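quick one before i forget lol
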Amino acid sequence: MPVLRQITTCTSPSTIVVERRSRARDRPVDYRLEFCRRHRWLAGTWTGRRSPEGAGGRCGTVTDYRPYSAIVQSHSDVWLRALTTHGPEDHDGDLASALRAGFEWLTAYREPTGVAMALEHAARIAEATAAGALPLADGQFQLLVALSMAETLDAGSRGA
């Protein structure tokens, strides 16, 4: 099931599409990103074919078809570590611990923001899933939604 992410709050139509093809039989595309002219610099961290073909959707939209673990790794590599200085690899691969540490880092010297609260919620989901309180597929889905919301809130707070 594809996961929709929004990495800008820009409502301009996209002028460039970055699409990474997959070699997996069940998934011809890994992800598809759309950017407007002003935000095309964001495409620099994403690999794939760049083309104006298929553009016209909303700027900053990421349609991610990769498996759960690859999407979580992308959130960590591209966004979470830059925002909080924490990633799962800093916590023996424990995503919940990384998210909790990120929340604590973001709230150490200021009141919690929407981004911080979304990260804390994601940590609680990861903890509940690991403890078996949520079925694995449900927990993974909820976690991706919480991370996507946190990323979108962060984009809004930065004016991206």
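fyi The longest strand covers residues 29-35.
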